[in-house]
Amino acid sequence: MPDHRLPPLNAVRAFDAAARLGSYVEASKALHVTQPAIGRHVKLLEDWLGIQLFERTSRGVNLTPAGEKYHRKISAALQLIIEAGKEARPKDAERWLRIMVVPGFAKRWLMPRIETLRHLRPGLKLAIEPNSTFTEVDGKSADLGIVYGLDGQYADSRAALICPRVFPICTPQYLASIEPVIGPADLVRHELIHVDDGEWWNLWFAANELDIHLNSDMLYVNNDHALSVAESGQGIALANEVLVREELKSGKLVRAVDAQVKLESYRVLTPSAEFSADVAWFIQWLKTELEADFPEAVIS
């Protein structure tokens, strides 16, 4: 029987970008993903095909003869797909994807990738609504939602995406100005920034096997706000790796202590009714990109 299996399409997209630009770094910028994510996608495609697509060099990557032949074929196929979509789409049709999402994730992970989404799904218009308090999606105000919380907290959760590691962060200047923080218990001597009445910090301490119970005199409305306060040097906040990856890489923030635990998951909420092909596509894109960016946070 003929083999009708398709290769992993996100891997094909990553390979195409790297082949056109001659660099994993430039491909990662073009697709708004990390350089390691491009490398993992290409390795996945090489394993799927059973051939080597690139020769790695100090200046970037060069196509192997097999890779060059494959790229000619898939680049032509990708262009045909784009043209077919343009021809099939009614000229006056407007397709909106309305996404309700917790603010930290919206600002720090999703928004930098909006241009990539628009290029991947031509004709799809996006409406992003940051919202820190919603617990369900009714299909009227939003087509889907992205929340961050404990298992069982949301009745209409379609799927858990990832469960990232949580750790305390602050500015290097703040950390240098306080007494040395050797372990998690030392944190209580310093200014801790809260997004609730102390529950999240207490949960984090308990996961680190410490019987510490805090109450908060000051709380902020969401994780993004709390992280902005920490970025201004006013104390130590809890953060998950999705929200502060770039800030840690640049040195704007540092970990206050090495301890880290998994507490809550990012999840997709959808209406109870069947959803559109655009929603299904977005959920799959979201899951694939998050798992590529944060492989250690994948839920088995």
Automatic annotation (TrEMBL):
Keywords tagged on the record: DNA-binding, Transcription, Transcription regulation
GO biological process, one term: DNA-templated transcription
GO molecular function annotations of the record: DNA-binding transcription factor activity; sequence-specific DNA binding
Transcription regulation among keywords: yes
SUPFAM superfamilies: Periplasmic binding protein-like II, Winged helix' DNA-binding domain
Pfam annotation, one family: HTH_1
Domain HTH lysR-type: from-to ranges: 7-64
InterPro entries referenced in this protein's UniProt entry, alphabetically: LysR-type_TF_proteobact-type, LysR_HTH_N, LysR_subst-bd, WH-like_DNA-bd_sf, WH_DNA-bd_sf
Entry similarity comment: Belongs to the LysR transcriptional regulatory family.
Designated name of the protein: LysR family transcriptional regulator
Organism this protein belongs to: Pseudomonas moraviensis
Lineage: Bacteria, Pseudomonadati, Pseudomonadota, Gammaproteobacteria, Pseudomonadales
